[in-house]
Amino acid sequence: MKSDVAARLAAVWNSLLVIVMTVGALVIPLLGVFHESFDSFFLPFDRLFTIVLGVDLIIKLRELRTRQDDNGASNFRDTKSYFLLFLDLIAVLPLFSMTGIVWLEILRLAKFARIIQLMQQWRRDSVHNWNILRLSFFIYWLFLSIHWLTAGWLVLRGHTAGEPVWGEYLHSLYWCIQTLSSVGYGDVIPTTNAEYLYAITVMLFGVGVFGYIVGNVASLLANIDPAKAHYLETMEKLTAFMKYRNLPAHLQRRIRDYFQYLWEHRRGYDEAAALSALPPQLMHEVSVHLKNDIIENAPFFRNASEQLVREIGKQMRPVTYMPGDFVFKAGESGQDMYFVSQGKLEVISQDGKTVLNKLSDGDFFGEISLVQSRPRTASVRALAYCDLYALEKTALDHVLQLDEEFAAKVEKSIRERLDRGV
């Protein structure tokens, strides 16, 4: 609980830090040109800047000290952290206030090394939205770069007394956009060697941006939802297969409905495949977590020990049934028992005419045939799409051998349910 609160507070603080740094990145480059116009706004902001960056420096120092206490000796990661702390220290010093030299305020932007690290962390933690974040970060840095290049052109041109601040900025932004985009109408041209060199630099930067857009942004937009792209690719292959094999129309419809259900409820992911990619210990922990509520809600496993719950969770495998599908029919040999994660089913008598029971989320069935090694006494049919977890006979026998008292409770539960014919 405490860790969750700490994570939320850290997220709020990091968001505040990004906002403050973004405002600073917009204002600071313009100070050298429009110093007098920005004094009334910037001096209070400079104090706020110092406070926010100072608090963040203290937080980062405590994090580094805690990590070293936990890990012992210093390593490359700590060396990198020390370098970032050095940049944090430069950014937090109110050099402008102490010296009166406006251009020293540019050193505040050294804090962007920490913002870059933070954005990389966000990308690692948000795998599902990775492409969206990557595109957002590209747009963010592109607009900041345009603003900085615009400010640079303003510095070279100088401020004309009496001219409106935002009018001069707009003229400079116009030049920057047309130069970056290689439009170049020729109505704003360099007049000094410094301006020519600066224009050449901006043009080369524009070529790099254009190359990045062509090589990456198109791919980002195409793969902004990789799960959906995978689903559409799968459906395209299935459609080609069904046409090639000339499957009946009703079978084609059922196949499409099944994959549509998987997409709408699971975003097309395969739970078993996802778990198999994890190391054994982590796989078991995640597996138990996914199935813990189902096991605990089933009277069949009520009051079972934590060890038993873990063993059961490791052995259960997910299965899906479509409306009208029989999970099993009366007279079949029992090889699995089932837990209902989501869906509705009906229990039908051996003659197929009488509905004996209705099953829904949290229910379980099929254990009688497994424990007593007898054929199924009834049929179970899905009334809707059903997500179930199956537990094989060998796995159940293994679980029952672990706890004789629990095995006795299971036998009692089965005797009580025999009259229901499941």
How does this structure look, described?
- The protein has helices at 2-31, 35-71, 76-92, 95-99, 112-125, 130-157, 165-180, 193-222, 226-245, 249-266, 271-276, 280-297, 306-315, 367-372, 393-402, 404-417; strands at 317-321, 326-328, 336-342, 345-348, 355-359, 364-365, 379-382, 386-392.
- Helix 5 runs antiparallel to helix 6 (130-157), helix 6 crosses helix 7 (165-180) and helix 9 runs antiparallel to helix 10.
- The strands form two sheets. Strands 1-8-3-6 form a four-stranded antiparallel beta sheet.
- The mean pLDDT is 80.
- The longest helix has 37 residues, at 35-71.
- The protein folds into four domains: 1-125; 128-224, Helix Hairpins (Orthogonal Bundle); 226-269, Helix hairpin bin (Helix Hairpins, Orthogonal Bundle), CATH 1.10.287.630; 272-420, Sandwich (Jelly Rolls), CATH 2.60.120.10.
- The relative contact order is 0.06.
- Strand 4 (345-348) and strand 5 form a beta hairpin.
- With 422 residues, the protein is an alpha+beta fold.
Summarize this structure briefly.
The protein is of the alpha+beta class and 422 residues long. The protein is built from 16 helices and eight strands. It has a four-stranded antiparallel beta sheet. A four-stranded antiparallel beta sheet has the order 2-7-4-5, with no helix packed on it.
Highlighted features:
9% strand; 8 strands; four-stranded antiparallel beta sheet; Helix Hairpins; alpha+beta; 4 domains; elongated
Q: Topology of this structure?
A:
Layout: H1 2-31, H2 35-71, H3 76-92, H4 95-99, H5 112-125, H6 130-157, H7 165-180, H8 193-222, H9 226-245, H10 249-266, H11 271-276, H12 280-297, H13 306-315, E1 317-321, E2 326-328, E3 336-342, E4 345-348, E5 355-359, E6 364-365, H14 367-372, E7 379-382, E8 386-392, H15 393-402, H16 404-417
Helix pairs in contact: 1-2, 1-6, 2-3, 5-6, 6-7, 6-8, 9-10, 12-13, 13-15, 15-16
